[in-house]
Write a structure and sequence with these properties.
Deoxyribonuclease I, Chain A, six-stranded mixed sheet, alpha+beta
Protein backbone atom coordinates (compact mmCIF):
# COMPACT_ATOMS: atom_id res chain seq x y z
CA UNK A 1 0.00 0.00 0.00
CA UNK A 2 1.49 3.41 -1.19
CA UNK A 3 1.70 6.12 1.37
CA UNK A 4 0.43 9.54 0.34
CA UNK A 5 3.03 12.08 1.17
CA UNK A 6 1.66 15.53 1.78
CA UNK A 7 3.85 18.56 1.15
CA UNK A 8 3.68 21.51 3.40
CA UNK A 9 2.13 24.66 1.89
CA UNK A 10 5.20 26.68 2.79
CA UNK A 11 7.57 24.46 0.82
CA UNK A 12 5.34 24.68 -2.27
CA UNK A 13 5.32 28.49 -2.11
CA UNK A 14 9.11 28.57 -1.79
CA UNK A 15 9.54 26.38 -4.85
CA UNK A 16 7.12 28.50 -6.88
CA UNK A 17 8.96 31.66 -5.87
CA UNK A 18 12.27 30.12 -6.87
CA UNK A 19 10.75 29.09 -10.23
CA UNK A 20 9.43 32.61 -10.82
CA UNK A 21 12.85 34.05 -10.08
CA UNK A 22 14.45 31.62 -12.52
CA UNK A 23 11.99 32.49 -15.27
CA UNK A 24 12.42 36.19 -14.55
CA UNK A 25 16.19 35.88 -14.68
CA UNK A 26 16.06 34.05 -18.01
CA UNK A 27 13.67 36.67 -19.42
CA UNK A 28 15.93 39.50 -18.28
CA UNK A 29 19.01 37.82 -19.76
CA UNK A 30 17.13 37.36 -23.07
CA UNK A 31 16.08 41.02 -23.11
CA UNK A 32 19.64 42.16 -22.45
CA UNK A 33 20.97 39.93 -25.21
CA UNK A 34 18.39 41.23 -27.69
CA UNK A 35 19.14 44.81 -26.65
CA UNK A 36 22.81 44.22 -27.42
CA UNK A 37 21.80 43.10 -30.91
CA UNK A 38 19.40 46.01 -31.41
CA UNK A 39 21.94 48.78 -30.92
CA UNK A 40 24.18 47.78 -33.87
CA UNK A 41 21.09 47.69 -36.11
CA UNK A 42 20.09 51.17 -34.96
CA UNK A 43 23.67 52.38 -35.39
CA UNK A 44 23.92 51.01 -38.96
CA UNK A 45 20.75 52.71 -40.15
CA UNK A 46 21.57 55.86 -38.19
CA UNK A 47 24.96 56.05 -39.89
CA UNK A 48 23.33 55.63 -43.32
CA UNK A 49 20.92 58.48 -42.55
CA UNK A 50 23.74 60.71 -41.29
CA UNK A 51 25.83 60.12 -44.41
CA UNK A 52 22.78 60.90 -46.56
CA UNK A 53 22.23 64.19 -44.72
CA UNK A 54 25.90 65.14 -45.11
CA UNK A 55 25.94 64.05 -48.80
CA UNK A 56 28.71 61.57 -48.01
CA UNK A 57 26.89 58.46 -49.22
CA UNK A 58 29.78 57.14 -51.30
CA UNK A 59 29.30 53.52 -50.29
CA UNK A 60 27.16 51.12 -52.31
CA UNK A 61 25.80 49.72 -49.03
CA UNK A 62 24.60 53.13 -47.86
CA UNK A 63 23.15 53.93 -51.29
CA UNK A 64 21.34 50.58 -51.26
CA UNK A 65 19.87 51.21 -47.81
CA UNK A 66 18.57 54.60 -48.95
CA UNK A 67 17.27 53.23 -52.26
CA UNK A 68 15.22 50.52 -50.57
CA UNK A 69 13.72 52.76 -47.91
CA UNK A 70 11.24 52.59 -46.31
CA UNK A 71 11.03 48.80 -46.82
CA UNK A 72 14.47 48.07 -45.40
CA UNK A 73 13.65 50.05 -42.27
CA UNK A 74 11.38 47.23 -41.08
CA UNK A 75 14.19 45.96 -38.78
CA UNK A 76 14.26 49.41 -37.17
CA UNK A 77 10.52 49.17 -36.58
CA UNK A 78 11.04 45.78 -34.92
CA UNK A 79 13.76 47.30 -32.73
CA UNK A 80 11.38 50.10 -31.75
CA UNK A 81 8.63 47.64 -30.81
CA UNK A 82 11.12 45.70 -28.70
CA UNK A 83 12.20 48.91 -26.98
CA UNK A 84 8.61 49.84 -26.14
CA UNK A 85 7.85 46.33 -24.90
CA UNK A 86 10.90 46.22 -22.63
CA UNK A 87 10.61 49.92 -21.65
CA UNK A 88 14.02 50.92 -22.95
CA UNK A 89 13.39 54.61 -23.47
CA UNK A 90 16.79 55.51 -24.91
CA UNK A 91 16.48 52.79 -27.55
CA UNK A 92 12.95 53.94 -28.44
CA UNK A 93 14.16 57.54 -28.76
CA UNK A 94 17.03 56.48 -31.04
CA UNK A 95 14.70 54.45 -33.25
CA UNK A 96 12.19 57.31 -33.47
CA UNK A 97 14.94 59.69 -34.58
CA UNK A 98 16.33 57.29 -37.21
CA UNK A 99 12.87 56.57 -38.64
CA UNK A 100 11.70 60.20 -38.59
CA UNK A 101 14.42 61.51 -40.91
CA UNK A 102 13.83 59.16 -43.90
CA UNK A 103 10.07 59.52 -43.48
CA UNK A 104 10.57 63.27 -43.63
CA UNK A 105 12.29 63.24 -47.03
CA UNK A 106 10.22 60.29 -48.36
CA UNK A 107 6.83 61.71 -47.43
CA UNK A 108 6.31 63.48 -50.73
CA UNK A 109 7.02 60.32 -52.71
CA UNK A 110 4.43 58.36 -50.73
CA UNK A 111 1.81 61.11 -50.67
CA UNK A 112 -1.22 59.53 -52.44
CA UNK A 113 -2.71 62.88 -53.46
CA UNK A 114 -1.94 64.53 -56.80
CA UNK A 115 -0.35 67.98 -56.48
CA UNK A 116 0.54 68.68 -60.10
CA UNK A 117 -1.10 71.55 -61.97
CA UNK A 118 -4.19 70.75 -64.04
CA UNK A 119 -3.63 71.98 -67.62
CA UNK A 120 -6.42 73.75 -69.56
CA UNK A 121 -8.17 71.64 -72.20
CA UNK A 122 -6.51 73.54 -75.04
CA UNK A 123 -2.94 72.52 -74.23
CA UNK A 124 -1.45 70.07 -76.79
CA UNK A 125 -0.64 66.63 -75.38
CA UNK A 126 1.91 63.91 -75.96
CA UNK A 127 1.70 60.25 -74.91
CA UNK A 128 4.99 58.74 -73.67
CA UNK A 129 6.15 55.17 -73.07
CA UNK A 130 9.47 54.38 -71.36
CA UNK A 131 11.01 51.06 -70.33
CA UNK A 132 14.29 49.44 -69.48
CA UNK A 133 13.93 46.19 -71.38
CA UNK A 134 16.80 44.47 -69.48
CA UNK A 135 19.38 43.41 -72.03
CA UNK A 136 19.21 39.73 -71.03
CA UNK A 137 15.51 39.57 -72.01
CA UNK A 138 15.21 37.72 -75.31
CA UNK A 139 11.48 37.98 -76.08
CA UNK A 140 10.03 41.40 -77.00
CA UNK A 141 6.52 40.12 -77.81
CA UNK A 142 4.87 41.34 -74.58
CA UNK A 143 6.59 44.70 -74.79
CA UNK A 144 5.55 45.18 -78.42
CA UNK A 145 1.98 44.21 -77.55
CA UNK A 146 1.82 46.88 -74.82
CA UNK A 147 3.10 49.55 -77.21
CA UNK A 148 0.70 48.53 -79.98
CA UNK A 149 -2.26 48.52 -77.56
CA UNK A 150 -1.67 52.04 -76.22
CA UNK A 151 -0.25 53.64 -79.38
CA UNK A 152 2.06 56.23 -77.72
CA UNK A 153 3.55 59.19 -79.58
CA UNK A 154 7.03 58.59 -78.15
CA UNK A 155 8.78 55.38 -77.10
CA UNK A 156 12.06 55.37 -75.16
CA UNK A 157 13.89 52.14 -74.36
CA UNK A 158 17.03 51.41 -72.37
CA UNK A 159 19.34 48.36 -72.60
CA UNK A 160 18.26 47.74 -76.20
CA UNK A 161 20.27 45.06 -78.01
CA UNK A 162 20.54 44.40 -81.78
CA UNK A 163 18.37 41.32 -81.27
CA UNK A 164 15.66 43.43 -79.62
CA UNK A 165 15.63 45.77 -82.61
CA UNK A 166 15.21 42.91 -85.06
CA UNK A 167 12.16 41.68 -83.14
CA UNK A 168 10.58 45.14 -83.00
CA UNK A 169 11.17 45.79 -86.71
CA UNK A 170 8.97 42.89 -87.76
CA UNK A 171 5.92 44.20 -85.86
CA UNK A 172 3.93 46.05 -88.56
CA UNK A 173 1.78 47.94 -86.04
CA UNK A 174 4.89 49.81 -84.87
CA UNK A 175 5.65 51.25 -88.30
CA UNK A 176 3.91 54.51 -87.38
CA UNK A 177 6.97 55.32 -85.19
CA UNK A 178 8.90 56.35 -88.31
CA UNK A 179 11.42 58.70 -86.70
CA UNK A 180 14.08 57.20 -84.50
CA UNK A 181 17.43 57.59 -82.84
CA UNK A 182 18.70 54.13 -81.92
CA UNK A 183 22.06 53.09 -80.45
CA UNK A 184 21.83 49.35 -79.68
CA UNK A 185 24.44 47.80 -77.43
CA UNK A 186 25.07 45.38 -74.60
CA UNK A 187 24.36 45.83 -70.90
CA UNK A 188 23.47 49.43 -70.05
CA UNK A 189 24.85 50.96 -73.27
CA UNK A 190 21.88 50.21 -75.55
CA UNK A 191 19.44 53.12 -76.04
CA UNK A 192 16.55 53.84 -78.37
CA UNK A 193 14.10 56.67 -79.10
CA UNK A 194 11.13 56.36 -81.49
CA UNK A 195 8.55 59.01 -82.42
CA UNK A 196 5.54 59.49 -84.66
CA UNK A 197 6.77 63.00 -85.49
CA UNK A 198 10.11 64.26 -86.82
CA UNK A 199 13.02 64.43 -84.38
CA UNK A 200 14.84 67.77 -84.33
CA UNK A 201 18.66 67.61 -84.10
CA UNK A 202 18.81 64.05 -82.69
CA UNK A 203 22.15 63.30 -81.10
CA UNK A 204 24.01 61.09 -78.67
CA UNK A 205 26.04 62.64 -75.86
CA UNK A 206 28.41 61.07 -73.39
CA UNK A 207 27.90 61.72 -69.70
CA UNK A 208 30.70 60.45 -67.44
CA UNK A 209 31.50 57.87 -70.12
CA UNK A 210 27.93 56.66 -70.54
CA UNK A 211 25.79 57.30 -73.66
CA UNK A 212 22.58 59.35 -73.42
CA UNK A 213 20.16 60.42 -76.17
CA UNK A 214 18.81 63.86 -76.92
CA UNK A 215 16.35 65.19 -79.51
CA UNK A 216 13.72 67.85 -79.99
CA UNK A 217 10.19 67.41 -81.28
CA UNK A 218 7.18 69.57 -81.97
CA UNK A 219 4.19 69.27 -79.67
CA UNK A 220 1.65 71.68 -81.07
CA UNK A 221 3.46 75.01 -81.56
CA UNK A 222 6.14 74.16 -78.96
CA UNK A 223 9.52 72.48 -79.45
CA UNK A 224 10.09 70.05 -76.58
CA UNK A 225 13.62 68.88 -75.68
CA UNK A 226 13.64 65.18 -74.86
CA UNK A 227 16.44 63.36 -73.01
CA UNK A 228 16.62 59.57 -72.69
CA UNK A 229 18.73 58.59 -69.68
CA UNK A 230 20.38 55.45 -68.37
CA UNK A 231 23.03 55.64 -65.68
CA UNK A 232 25.68 53.36 -64.28
CA UNK A 233 24.69 51.08 -61.40
CA UNK A 234 26.08 52.55 -58.13
CA UNK A 235 28.12 49.49 -57.19
CA UNK A 236 31.84 49.36 -56.47
CA UNK A 237 33.93 51.75 -58.55
CA UNK A 238 30.84 52.79 -60.51
CA UNK A 239 29.54 54.83 -57.56
CA UNK A 240 31.77 57.78 -58.47
CA UNK A 241 30.81 57.59 -62.16
CA UNK A 242 27.13 57.29 -61.21
CA UNK A 243 27.35 60.47 -59.12
CA UNK A 244 29.18 62.31 -61.92
CA UNK A 245 26.59 61.14 -64.43
CA UNK A 246 23.63 62.37 -62.36
CA UNK A 247 25.43 65.68 -61.80
CA UNK A 248 25.95 65.98 -65.56
CA UNK A 249 22.26 65.32 -66.22
CA UNK A 250 21.31 68.04 -63.72
CA UNK A 251 23.70 70.47 -65.40
CA UNK A 252 22.49 69.79 -68.95
CA UNK A 253 18.81 69.82 -68.02
CA UNK A 254 19.17 72.99 -65.97
CA UNK A 255 21.08 74.81 -68.70
CA UNK A 256 18.16 74.72 -71.13
CA UNK A 257 15.07 76.90 -71.22
CA UNK A 258 11.70 75.88 -72.51
CA UNK A 259 9.82 72.59 -72.39
CA UNK A 260 11.92 69.60 -71.34
CA UNK A 261 11.25 65.92 -70.70
CA UNK A 262 13.96 63.82 -69.05
CA UNK A 263 13.11 60.15 -68.73
CA UNK A 264 14.68 56.75 -68.31
CA UNK A 265 16.44 54.51 -65.80
CA UNK A 266 18.32 56.78 -63.37
CA UNK A 267 19.29 53.96 -60.97
CA UNK A 268 18.30 56.45 -58.28
CA UNK A 269 15.25 56.96 -56.10
CA UNK A 270 13.75 60.25 -55.05
CA UNK A 271 15.37 59.73 -51.61
CA UNK A 272 18.83 60.37 -53.03
CA UNK A 273 20.53 63.74 -52.93
CA UNK A 274 22.06 63.25 -56.39
CA UNK A 275 18.65 62.70 -57.95
CA UNK A 276 17.19 65.60 -55.99
CA UNK A 277 19.80 67.83 -57.65
CA UNK A 278 18.16 67.04 -61.02
CA UNK A 279 14.79 68.11 -59.65
CA UNK A 280 16.34 71.29 -58.30
CA UNK A 281 17.42 72.13 -61.86
CA UNK A 282 13.79 72.98 -62.54
CA UNK A 283 12.11 69.63 -63.17
CA UNK A 284 9.33 67.76 -61.42
CA UNK A 285 8.62 64.04 -61.14
CA UNK A 286 5.45 63.03 -62.98
CA UNK A 287 4.84 60.14 -60.54
CA UNK A 288 4.88 62.46 -57.52
CA UNK A 289 2.83 65.11 -59.34
CA UNK A 290 0.23 62.42 -60.02
CA UNK A 291 0.20 61.06 -56.45
CA UNK A 292 1.71 57.75 -57.62
CA UNK A 293 5.20 58.02 -56.15
CA UNK A 294 4.53 54.95 -54.03
CA UNK A 295 4.40 52.67 -57.11
CA UNK A 296 7.73 50.89 -57.48
CA UNK A 297 9.34 50.14 -60.85
CA UNK A 298 12.25 47.75 -60.22
CA UNK A 299 12.75 44.31 -58.74
CA UNK A 300 15.95 42.23 -58.73
CA UNK A 301 13.95 39.03 -59.49
CA UNK A 302 10.78 38.48 -61.55
CA UNK A 303 9.05 36.62 -58.69
CA UNK A 304 9.59 39.49 -56.23
CA UNK A 305 7.26 42.53 -56.29
CA UNK A 306 8.93 45.79 -57.31
CA UNK A 307 10.75 47.33 -54.33
CA UNK A 308 12.34 50.55 -55.65
CA UNK A 309 11.34 53.40 -57.96
CA UNK A 310 14.43 54.09 -60.05
CA UNK A 311 12.70 54.78 -63.40
CA UNK A 312 11.35 58.30 -63.80
CA UNK A 313 9.66 60.74 -66.17
CA UNK A 314 10.59 64.34 -65.34
CA UNK A 315 9.06 67.46 -66.87
CA UNK A 316 9.73 71.21 -66.83
CA UNK A 317 7.37 73.78 -65.20
CA UNK A 318 5.70 74.70 -68.50
CA UNK A 319 4.31 71.17 -68.77
CA UNK A 320 1.76 69.21 -66.74
CA UNK A 321 0.97 65.51 -66.49
CA UNK A 322 -2.59 64.46 -67.16
CA UNK A 323 -2.01 60.73 -66.54
CA UNK A 324 0.68 58.39 -65.23
CA UNK A 325 0.80 54.62 -64.96
CA UNK A 326 3.29 51.90 -64.08
CA UNK A 327 2.80 49.04 -66.53
CA UNK A 328 3.13 45.29 -66.11
CA UNK A 329 6.53 43.64 -65.93
CA UNK A 330 7.33 41.83 -69.19
CA UNK A 331 10.20 39.50 -68.33
CA UNK A 332 12.95 41.86 -67.17
CA UNK A 333 13.66 43.66 -63.92
CA UNK A 334 11.82 46.90 -64.72
CA UNK A 335 8.19 47.91 -65.12
CA UNK A 336 7.42 50.26 -68.02
CA UNK A 337 6.07 53.78 -67.50
CA UNK A 338 3.21 55.49 -69.32
CA UNK A 339 2.46 59.21 -69.11
CA UNK A 340 0.40 61.78 -70.94
CA UNK A 341 1.91 65.25 -70.72
CA UNK A 342 0.32 68.55 -71.72
CA UNK A 343 2.51 71.40 -73.01
CA UNK A 344 1.74 75.07 -72.49
CA UNK A 345 1.43 76.62 -75.98
Amino acid sequence: MRRNQQQKPGSVAIRLARGDRSVGAIREMTHRFLAVLCWPVAALFGLAILLRLLHLDDSAVVIGLIALSPWDFAPMLAVGIFGVWTRRRVLVLAVALVLALPLWWSFQAFDPFAHGARPPPGWPRIRIFDANVTWTTTDMADLAAEIVKDHPDVVALEEVTPGDLEQLKIVPQLSYLRYQLVRPGTASAGMGLWSDRPLIDPSEWMDAGHPELRAGMRVGPVTVSLFVIHTFIPVGLSVVRWKRELAGIAEVAGRLDGARIVLGDFNATSDMYEFDAILRSGLSDVAIDSGRGWEMTWSPWPWLPAIARIDHILISPDMAATSYQVGSEFGGQHHPLWATVAVRP
